Amino acid sequence: MKLALTEEQEMLRQAARDFLGDKCSKAFVRQMEESESGYSGELWQEMADLGWMGLALPEQYGGGGFTFLDLAVLLEEMGRACLPGPFFSTVVLGSLPVLEFGSEEQKQRYLPGAIRGEKMLSLASAESSFANPCGAGITLEATREGDSYVIKGTSLFVPDAHIADCLLCIVKTKPEDKVAIVLADARSTQMSCVPLKSIGGDKLCEVIFDRLAVPKSDVLVQEDRGWDAVERIVRRAALAKCCEMVGCIQRVLEMTVTYAKERKQFDRPIGSFQVIQHYCADMATDVDGARFSTYQAAWMMSQGLPCAREVAIAKAWMGEASRRVMNLAHQIHGAIGVSMEHELHYYTRRAKAAELAFGDADFYREVIAREMGLCQDR
Amino acid sequence: MDFGFTDAQDEFRREVRDFLEGEIEQGYWQPACDAWIQGFDPEFTKRVADRGWIGLTWPREYGGQGRSHVDRLILTEEMLRYGAPAACHWFADRQVGGAILSFGSEELKGEFLPRIARGEAYFGLGMSEPGAGSDLASLQTRAVEDGDYYVINGQKTWTSCAYFAHYFDVYARTDPDAPKHKGISEFIVDARLPGLSRIPMTDVTGTEAWSDLFFDNVRVHKRYLIGEKNRGFYQVLHQLDYERSGMERIMGNYPLFEAIVQFARESGLSHQPVIRGKLAQLQIEFEVGRLLGYRVTSVLEEGRTPNMESSMSKAYSTEFEKRLANVAMEILGPYGQLMPGSRLVPLRGMAPHSYLGSKGYSLQAGTTEILKNVLATRGLGLPGS
């Protein structure tokens, strides 16, 4: 047991922090939020050249062969920087599921390209509500027609679908009425895409499939194990979102403490007032609780250990802890913190979006209750 | 980051569990909340000592085992999980032994550590006074030099290990003219010395685990001064970091947690979403507290003294214990008010006992407010108020 990063992870963290500090200013984040594509091709290529897209993918596909725990460190830095763009979608929602569930042919088709920065992937996972990511909400239908599935319907809140090359679609197959995951060509004219104006300023899309045909060879996960695969993908996504949020709220704590030391009222720094000190102490506790519960789950996932319970604990804690942290950060920052000229709002907006993504605290409390044997039926 | 335990550590955990389960099976004691601070059982302490489990991390030359802080974490975690009556040795094992190791003379180490480790010397803590709680440095108990002795006069309160302690770790003022932090010294005081009397105090749970200590010209030989004269306050800060650092701060009422979850499951009450949601929330909060405690051990294992880490862990965890007791009371409804020993009492009355007892959790060893001050100023670098 050692609850500190390894030397190698510290180096990765520092390299990422330096790079993003240089390339990802808040002015850049705002520019990306306002742009149509939401990312910079130049930065994307530089990230690929650094080996980030393939960090946690095997060397045989051009990856770095590191673990999810190493990816966690990188995601934390991205959350700290509010990095815009399709890294999360491509790596967490795309490449890792393809690696886990794909055939060798599918892996060869997608992973090397994604690692080189040439292919972007994402996941169409929810129709109505992210609060219930594994629930009965799957309404996207894929009807078997000969050797193909034909997808018809709408998928909502699909991140970066407008720039993706391929969408992993969670579908209900017809006539079997079972869950499967298929790889859909996101450049097809049978698919249209409208970015939604969301609180996080990220590019969540409404995706409409109009009889998009997917050949059998593009089925990623067959019906018999579809549900299990969905749970595993959502679990990893929830955890990866926690990793980003650790960086986000850690940065907010630091900004707030710095501000409390500098801002003077009544002729003294407001950070010398005990009430402000205790707010900061509460924030630090929430942040460290989030950090350790997240890294515990990430460690377990990278060890290949069962971690449904630990991910649920991390995401449930993060959802509510991040809200408390943001509320106190705003209270301590005072009025400047609610202006668009200050950078706090980037974190406030992203924290809320992250809370809603891949299951909120209510959802995971129910998961934990089940793990505790408190639910009537499993 | 490594959250795992080695095979040897897992094996040690099994060994501790087997021992404790065997104890319960033989009817030696029943799991209880607060047993680490209120459960006085000299026989149990002796059996623990016989296994070499007191002073586990101390050097072998002083009767310890030279084992890791992770091993001690495992040992204490299991003791708390089973609610074992470990109060006789807890304070000496947790902090006084460490204080003697860090600051004491070779003579003191040789005299006390092996006896503590053998389960033959119990310590109580003589810190608080009626007029000195959070502001410990304002303590008024005096120790005046007289030849080879210090003569101690004054009063301590909320002294732990009330009836059972053979010795007290006492802080007294040795230089009344110095600034208040710079005139305090630390002593080992034999409980049998003439002029020392103890009057047990009954706390809100009805338990007599603490006492008032009265010093009337108590003569303590100079060799029982721990560390340097007038450095006592700095030594106590160090000791408090250890006092605040353990798993007893998140697991003090753990037996109630297991019992109420089982009760909710078996009674069918957990079918109500509100009730299972509350228990799931407690599980989340418990896990976070456990990890904050593990982080303290990780810091110790790096050879550092946990300061803001143990403050954070204790401040967080004692609030959790209060919520746990409250949720248990809510789930039990009107039965929740039945005290231990009452007819019809569920869960042996652990819920109301813990509900009342938990009011003190966030006061012992530094109030939550003091701990947050430490965290903010020493941890986050905010300016002193």
Number of helices of chain A: 11
CATH-derived topology of the largest domain in chain B = Butyryl-CoA Dehydrogenase, subunit A, domain 3
* Mean pLDDT over all positions of chain A: 95
Query: How many domains would you count in the coordinates of chain B?
Result: 3
| End-to-end CA span of chain A | 33 Å
| Alpha carbon gyration radius of chain B | 21 Å
Strand order of the largest sheet of chain B: 1-4-5-8
Radius of gyration of chain A: 21 Å
Structural class of chain B: alpha+beta
Q: Beta-sheet strand percentage of chain B?
A: 5-15%
Largest interface: A-B, 49 and 46 residues
What general form of chain A does the structure show?
Answer: globular
Distance between the termini of chain B: 36 Å
Q: What's the CATH H-level homologous superfamily of the largest domain in chain B? A: Butyryl-CoA Dehydrogenase, subunit A, domain 3
Structural class of chain A: alpha+beta
- Write the H/E string of chain B, N to C: HHHHHHEEEEEEEEHHHHHHH
Mean pLDDT of chain B: 96
Briefly, what CATH class of the largest domain in chain B?
Mainly Alpha
Report the uncertain regions of chain B: none
Plain-language structure description:
- The complex is a heterodimer of chains A (378) and B (385).
- Chain A has 378 residues and is α+β, with helices and mostly antiparallel strands.
- Chain A contains 11 helices and 10 strands.
- In chain A, the strands form 2 sheets. In chain A, strands 1, 2, 3, 4, 5, 6, 7 and 8 form an 8-stranded mixed beta sheet that branches. In chain A, strands 9-10 form a two-stranded antiparallel ribbon.
- With 385 residues, chain B is α+β, with helices and mostly antiparallel strands.
- Chain B has helices at residues 7-25, 35-38, 42-50, 69-81, 87-103, 106-117, 232-243, 248-251, 254-267, 273-301, 308-332, 350-361, 368-379, and strands at 123-126, 142-146, 149-159, 167-173, 184-190, 196-201, 210-221, 225-226.
- In chain B, helix 9 (254-267) packs parallel to helix 11 (308-332).
- The longest helix of chain B has 29 residues, at 273-301.
- The chains are: A alpha+beta (378), B alpha+beta (385).
- At the A-B interface, helix 7, strand 10, helix 8, helix 9 and helix 11 of A face helix 9, helix 10, helix 11 and helix 13 of B.
